[in-house]
Amino acid sequence: MSQYWSELTASLVPYVPGEQPKDQRYIKLNTNENPYPPSPKVIEAIQAATNADLRLYPDPTCEPLREVLAQYYGLTKEHVFVGNGSDEILAFAFPAFFSADRTILFPDITYTFYPVYAKLYGINYETIPTDEQFNIDARQYGIPNGGIIIPNPNAPTARFMLVDQLKTILEANRSQVVIVDEAYVDFGGESVVPLVAGYHNLLVVQTLSKSRSLAGLRVGMAVGHPDLIEGLNRIKNSFNSYTLDRLALAGAVAAIEDQAYFENTNRKVIATREWTIEALKPLGFQAIESKANFIFVTHPERSAPELFASLKSRGILVRYFNKPRIDQYLRVSIGTDEEMEAFVSAVKAIL
Ligand code: PMP
């Protein structure tokens, strides 16, 4: 431990992101990136924005992007917030809406950044158990709490909740903020954005990282009642009022505007996901039903860490979590058809 660290730094157990190997030869199915490139219109827009104006600060309100997102969601720009990836928005949302003296709730198996943020901001949390198949039971979220965060679909399980189940949670928790993290919703899930008008305590967080193939651009968005957006702005402007840079702003606008490209790539990812699950079943794998761009699979006879290592030695990188309850599962991002064929062939060779 460094003698210069604060007590806070010394106490933190930070989030560990998935490996980004230097060796480009890996078939990379470990961090839920989209296997397809971003829309060509995004590249054009970033190239066009690569000019002398880079000497100027960007628009601190990110207005052009919030305008196109507002149109996309059928709301006004006062309902929209944008940040450097949804991770940054979540990092703003925790101190904006959750207080140190009130316990927040999230599922026991979920995105591991949530406990990291809670600890960073000194917010107590309680985890709500999912069942054996990682289902989230909305009725368990009716206990007293200081806020709730739920990813839908969940990560890393891929389990999804229906809008009605999320409504049950919102109904039981009208006086505190409920954040629904929809990082993976575009791969067949159902968004709760239409509930924003009726539930002023609902903040929906989405990202361009997955369904718009822009993990490298770092753009996320949040949709909620203007009071919630104002809360996020207060934290943002107390931290880094510029958030998105000029290139990210230009690329993000083009990404939202190219709806046809987005729908086409998502359709391909969904189709690949479905045949991959079907191909794994006769090999003895069990997969959690997925509406995400990844699958969560287990084999009753083969240990997950061994499968992970064998796949890696064959040049295929998937994700393994050495954690209670999920240590016999692999999370496999959906690649192109060719990549998933290589994955299935490698699994067959290993079994
Ligand atoms: N939420 C969930 C559930 C995720 O899995 C991820 C991706 N790791 C994120 C948010 C963050 O994505 P990004 O910061 O790239 O928008």
TrEMBL record:
<keyword id="KW-0663">Pyridoxal phosphate</keyword>
<dbReference type="Pfam" id="PF00155">
    <property type="entry name" value="Aminotran_1_2"/>
</dbReference>
<keyword id="KW-0368">Histidine biosynthesis</keyword>
<dbReference type="InterPro" id="IPR015424">
    <property type="entry name" value="PyrdxlP-dep_Trfase"/>
</dbReference>
<dbReference type="InterPro" id="IPR015421">
    <property type="entry name" value="PyrdxlP-dep_Trfase_major"/>
</dbReference>
<dbReference type="InterPro" id="IPR004839">
    <property type="entry name" value="Aminotransferase_I/II_large"/>
</dbReference>
<feature type="domain" description="Aminotransferase class I/classII large">
    <location>
        <begin position="26"/>
        <end position="346"/>
    </location>
</feature>
<dbReference type="GO" id="GO:0030170">
    <property type="term" value="F:pyridoxal phosphate binding"/>
</dbReference>
<feature type="modified residue" description="N6-(pyridoxal phosphate)lysine">
    <location>
        <position position="210"/>
    </location>
</feature>
<dbReference type="GO" id="GO:0004400">
    <property type="term" value="F:histidinol-phosphate transaminase activity"/>
</dbReference>
<dbReference type="InterPro" id="IPR001917">
    <property type="entry name" value="Aminotrans_II_pyridoxalP_BS"/>
</dbReference>
<keyword id="KW-0028">Amino-acid biosynthesis</keyword>
<dbReference type="InterPro" id="IPR005861">
    <property type="entry name" value="HisP_aminotrans"/>
</dbReference>
<dbReference type="GO" id="GO:0000105">
    <property type="term" value="P:L-histidine biosynthetic process"/>
</dbReference>
<dbReference type="InterPro" id="IPR015422">
    <property type="entry name" value="PyrdxlP-dep_Trfase_small"/>
</dbReference>
<keyword id="KW-0032">Aminotransferase</keyword>
<protein>
    <recommendedName>
        <fullName>Histidinol-phosphate aminotransferase</fullName>
        <ecNumber>2.6.1.9</ecNumber>
    </recommendedName>
</protein>
<dbReference type="InterPro" id="IPR050106">
    <property type="entry name" value="HistidinolP_aminotransfase"/>
</dbReference>
<comment type="subunit">
    <text>Homodimer.</text>
</comment>
<comment type="pathway">
    <text>Amino-acid biosynthesis; L-histidine biosynthesis; L-histidine from 5-phospho-alpha-D-ribose 1-diphosphate: step 7/9.</text>
</comment>
<keyword id="KW-0808">Transferase</keyword>
<comment type="similarity">
    <text>Belongs to the class-II pyridoxal-phosphate-dependent aminotransferase family. Histidinol-phosphate aminotransferase subfamily.</text>
</comment>
